[in-house]
C-alpha cells in the first residue's frame, strides 16, 4: 500500500530538509521559512491561512524586539519573499495553517509541525554531516539544532500525500506549521485561534530525543515537563569602578548571584525538576560598574505542582538577589508549557496501523522524555473538546544531544516519519 | 596677559566640546573624532602625524573586532571622513600627533589629551544638560561619560593659542591626541612611537574626578592606580537543558562563579585595591545549557606590588571557576596601566604661573584620586628620559560620578583648563 | 492465629520504644542502646554476639573521634552499662547480632533493625507527642528523628515472638541490630562479618517515609538511591582580618563557594539526583581570616552510574573551590550505600501471608522512595548468595518529615509491623 | 635615670609574660588572668577595683554564653582563684582598675592594657618560640596571638615602677587592665564607669602591628578603623535530604550566600574598608537539610561614614540571603569600635622624653595601621573631656602576622615599652 509514494518523495523530502536547514530562522522571525512552506502547499492545492488569520496575535509570548523583526523582514524581502506575504506576516506573525477538506464525512485530523531554529552557531567540523554536505547554516548563530527542519519537511511530505491521494481519503485535515516552539512561545497563539476546537485526532512528534534506531518509533511520550520561562531585568546604577566603586549598584552581581542560586533550587521528591539560565548579559565596559543586566531563565517540573514550586522558588531567588545588591528587578514571564498526557488508546491503533509499514520496524508503546513542548497547549485543547492526541518519537541515532552545535539526525528518519503518518492516515481516514 | 584670548575662544571651545559630545566614538574607532581634530589643527598650521605615523600599531592593546572596525569605518565614510584619512587610520589606527616648532631654542613641552568615549547609553532625562541643550549622544550605547570630549576641546584651545601666539613662544610643542584611554589601551602605542623621548615637560589632566569648584585646579594627583585588564573566555559544551542537563558543561556558571569570587579578593593592608567585572555575556538561548561565556575584568592596585597581587588572585580565581565547571578557559591581558608619580617640583611652578590667571582661583598642590590612567606610560617614559611630568585636575561640580549615564561637567571648566595651560606655557615657554 | 500475642506485647512495645526514644545515641556510640537490647534478648534466650564478634571492626566507616567515643563510654558506665559489655563494645563496636536455632530443618531467615539516632535537637513543643508524653530526648542535639527507636522496638517484638513460639517454628533466625545506619556507615561492617552468607530470606523495613495510613504496608520499595558521603577539610592560613587581610588564605570562602556550587550540579536525565551539605564549620574568631573549614556532604543517584556522576562532579567542585582560594583540601569518603533492588517474587507471598492479619489492612506491592539505606549492603549480599531480600514500609501519618525536630510516628505502626513480620514468619517458617 | 629599674625588672617581665601566655583566656572569661594581675598589684600597694566596681556591667557587648562562663568559672576555681574574687567577677565581670595617688598635685595619667586572648590553636612547631621554650598555650583553641600577654606584662612593669618610685612622682595614676578587647567588647564598659572623665593624659599602645626593629616606637597611630561586629542567626527548616529535599528551608545556603556576597561589598573611594566572616557554623548532620546556621561578621571603615556604609551594606546582604532561601534571620550587633585620632601635640613630647632612653632607639612620629581597637572609646572619652590621648606602637620583628597560630614577638620589646612609658612618666609626672 502506497510504499511507492515514499520512494517517489524521498529525494524531495531530503531536499526540503536541507534547504530549510541552510537558512534557519529564530522564533517569530520565520518569514522565509513560512513563505517557502506556503508556496509548496499552494502548489499542492491546500487552503492557506497566514499571518493574523493563522494565529491570535496577542497570545504570542516572548516576541523579539521590534528592531530585530524589522531587520529580519528586510532580509526576507532581499531573499525574495513576496511583499503581499510580508504584509501579512509583518511584526512576527509567522507560521501558517493549511486545510484540506475531502468533502466526505469523516474525522477531522490535525497535525502539528514546528518550524523554528535556535540561537546556536552550527559546527563547521568536517565530521558534521551538514557541514560536509554543504547545507550547514548560512546564518551566524542560528541553527536547526533540534530537528525542526526535519519536522517541517515531514509536514510537507504528509501534505503531499494528502493532496495526491485525496480521493482515497475522507474527512478533513488541518496542518499547523507552528512558529516559535523553542521557548514555548507560539503554540498558544495558534490554539487560541480555535484551530483545534473540533479536531478528533491530533498527531505531532519529534525526531530523536532518545537515541533509537531508525525505524523505531514511539506511539506516546510520557514525561514532558511543564515549564515556565522568564526574562529578568536588573536595573542598578553604573559608576566608575576605580574612582567611585561605592556609588555603583551592581546589576551584574545581582544576576550572577541569582544564577548561582537558581541552580541550587532543591530537587523535589515527587518528580523531575529542571532549571536553566540560558542567557546572561551584563554591563557595558570594563571599568564601569554594571548598571544593567539581563537573564533568560527556564524552570520545569514533572507535574504542574512541581512546575509551580520551581517558579515560586525562582522568582523568590531573583528578587532577593536584586535586593541584596540594592538594584531593582523586573521579572517577565515569556513562555509557558503544560504537562502533556498522550491518549493511551492510540497506542494499539498506531501499533496496528504501522504494522504494515516496511519502514517502521518497531512501535514502542511509550518512551519517556524530560523536555518541554508547547504542543502541550495544542494537545490539551484537543483533549478538552473530546478529541484524542499523542506526541510521537521518530528514532534516529544521536551522536550529539539536541541543542549541540553538532546535532544531527539520520535523514532516513524523515522517510520513516512520513510513512508512519501515512499509515495512520490510511488506518483512520481511508475510505 | 592674554586674558582676551580666552574670551575670544570661549564660544568655540564650547562648540567643539558639544560637537564631539554628540558623536562619541569608542577606543580605536575614533575615526570621525580624529578627522575633526585633524582638520582644525591643519587650519592652525600644525604638522600632523596620523595613522601608523602617530602610533606603533603593534603596541595597541584590546583592539575591537575586525567586523566592528569595518562597520565603523563605513559609517565614518558616510559622515564625510576623507578617503585619504580613512586609508591611514584603517584598522583602528586612530588618534594623531600635532607638532609645532617655534624655531627658537627652548624646552620641548608635551601635552596629552585623550579622545575616546564609553559604551554607556546617555541619559535622555530633561535635567541632563546635554539632553536639554540637544547635544546628547546620537549613538546608542556610546557616550562621552568621562569628559574626554572636554579634554579634546581643551587640546584644540591650547593648540589655537600656540598657533596664534607662536611668535611669543620658544622651543617645541608636541600635542598627543590619544585614542583608547578607556581600558588603558592606547597610550603605550604612542609612547612606543618615541614621541616622549626628548620631552622636557609633559602636562596632562582630567576634568572632574573630585567634585571641586570651577576655578580650582590640582597641580598633581597622587594615587593613580596600576591596573591590568583581562578578557576571559570560557568554553564548555551546550546541551538541551531539559533532556540532557548532565551532558552540558556550563560556561555561564563558570563565569558567574568567577565574578562573585573576584569581588571577594581580599583587601590589601598596603594600599588601595579595585576589581570590576565590567561585562559578562553568556549563553545563546533559554533552554540551552550555555557552552560559551565571556567576561571583561579589571583589577587595580595602589602600588605595582598590589596590582600584581590582584592580578595573581584574579587569574587564579578565573581558572579555578573554569575547573569547577569542567570548562576550558582563556585569559587574555588586554590593557595595562602603571602607577603615576607626578613630579612635585612642578607644584610651586604651576602655582606661581597660574597666580596671575583670572580664571584659576586656587591651585591645590595635590588631590588624591583612585582611578587608573594609561597616561602612566607617557609620564613614566618622559621621566625615564629625565623630563618632568604631571597629571592635573580641573575642578567642576559633579552631580553624577564619572561613567554614569548622567555624567556632566560645567563647561566653564574648559576655559579654566585652557587658561591654566596658557599660563603654564607663558611661564615656561614664553620668550 | 496468634493475634493474642500482639495484644499481650503491645504495652511492652510502646514502653521499649519510649525508653529508647528518651536516650538516643549517635552512630557507633549506641552503648546504652545495645546494652538494653542485649539484656532483653538475653532474657528471651537468644545467643548473642556483640562487639567484634558482631561486626568487622575495620569495615566501619566514619567512626566518631576517639575523644567523643571515650566521653560517651564514660557516660554509658554512669548509666549502668556493665563493664564486661563496655569492654567488648569499646571503641565504637556497637550493635549486636542475636541468633535463634529451632533445631529443625528449615530456612535461615534474617531480619535487620537499625538502632542509631540523629544529631537533631528534639522539639519541646507541647504539640509534639514525645514532649507532651514526657519521653522526648534527654540528650541535647541527639534525637530519634528517623524512627529507629521504633525499628528497635519492632525487632524486640519479633524476637519475643520467636522465643515464645519457637516450638511452632522451623529453621534458623538471625536478627541484626545494626549500628550507624545514618550516614551509611554500619551495615558493611556486619555484612563483612559473614552473617548474611547463608540467609535464605532477609526482611527489613522502615516506619513512615511516605505518609500512609496505619495498617498499610509496602511489600517492596523501589527507588532507594546509591549514595556517597564525604567529609571535606580545607586548610588555609589565618591572619588578622583588619591589619593583613592579604596574608590570609580563606578556608571559609573555599567551603562556602563549594557549598553553593555543589547544589548546582546538573540534574541527570536518567534518574534522581540528590546533594546535600549537611554541616559546615569554619573559622575561630570574628576578626581572624578563617584558616580552617570543614564540610559534611552527601550525594545520591537513582542508579550506580548517576551516583558515580554525582561523586565525580562533587569532588571536582570541592577541589576547584580550594584552588580558587589557594587553600589545600582533603576529601575523605566516609560512607556509601548501594542501590537496592527488592525481590519481586516476595510481593505475592507477603501479600498472601499478611491477608489474615487483623492489623495489616492493605499490602501495597511497591511504594517508591528516594532515600538511601545501607541495608543495601545487607540485601545485596543475601541476593549475591542466592537468597531473597526486601525492604518494606510500615504506614503512619507523618505530620513532619523525617529528620525534622518534630518528626513523630503513630505508635500503632509498631503493632502493625510486628504483626506483619509474625505473619511472614508463620507463612514461611511455621511447622 | 632609672635604667637600673629595667635591668632589675627584665626577668620578671618575661616571666609574667610567659605565665600569662601559657594560660590564655577569651574575652570576659579572664578570671585567672585578672586574679593573677590583681594579686601582683595588691602586693605593690595599688588600690584595686574589680568586678562591677571596675566596669559597667550593662555596657559589655558580646558576652559569652552563660554555660561557657560557668564552665570557665569552675576551671578558675580549680586553678586556685579565691572564692571572694570569683564572687565579684562572676558572670563575666573580668578585668580590673588599679589606682595610685601620690598625694601630690599633678596630672591624672591613665594607662590602658588589654588582657584577653583569641580562639586560635597555638602552633606546636618547634620553630615557634613559645613552643620551643615551653610556655605555649596549655588551652586548646585559645592563644595569645595578638600580644596582649605582653601588654599585660608591660602594665605590671609600669605599675611596679609607679609603686617603687612613687616618692619621685606627682599626681594620680589609673591603670585599666581591660577585658575583651578582641571583638571591641570591653572598653565601653570601663569607659561608661567613668574612669576616664578627668584623665589628663591617656597612653595605650600595641606590640607589633607593623614589623619594626626592637627599639623603634611610634608616638601616634593614624588609621585605626571604625568597626561594627555582628552575629547573624539564620533559622530555616530541616528535612531529610534524600526523601523530602523540597520541604527544607536551607539555612546553610543562606549563610554561604551571605558570606560570598559580603566579601564583595564595593570598596570605597574615600578610605579603607574591611569585611570578614570570621566564623560560620551550619547544620547538624550529613543527610539533614540544615535548619540553622550562624555567622560572626565584622566590617570596618577608615571613617565613621565608611563604617556606616559597610554596616548598611552588610545587613542588607544578610537579610537578602535569608529571603533568598526563605529562612528567617536575626542580626545582632555585638561589638563596636570608633575611629581613633591621636593627639599630635604628644608627638614632640614623647619624642623628647624618650630621647634619653637607652632602649628606645627611634621614635617615629606616626605609623599608620589598619586594625580596629576599642581603645577608641577610651581615647574619645578622654578627649571629649579635654584630655590628650595617644595609641603607640612598640616595634618588634614579626615573622608571622597577628592572629596567626605562629604569631610571636621579640621579648625585648617588653623592656622597650616599659622604658618608654617610664620616660613618659618622668617627663610628665616627675617631681
From TrEMBL, chains A, B, C, D:
GO terms for molecular function: dipeptidase activity; metal ion binding; para-aminobenzoyl-glutamate hydrolase activity. Keywords: Manganese, Metal-binding. One of its GO terms (biological process) is folic acid catabolic process. Its cofactor is Mn(2+). This is Peptidase M20. InterPro entries: Amidohydrolase (IPR017439), Bact_exopeptidase_dim_dom (IPR036264), Peptidase_M20 (IPR002933), Peptidase_M20/M20A_hydrolases (IPR052030), Peptidase_M20_dimer (IPR011650). One of its GO terms (cellular component) is cytoplasm. The Mn(2+) ion enhances activity. It comes from Sporosarcina globispora. Residues 230-320 form the Peptidase M20 dimerisation domain. SUPFAM superfamilies: Bacterial exopeptidase dimerisation domain, Zn-dependent exopeptidases. Mn(2+) binds at residues 146, 148, 182, 206, 403. The keyword Metal-binding applies. The keyword Manganese applies.
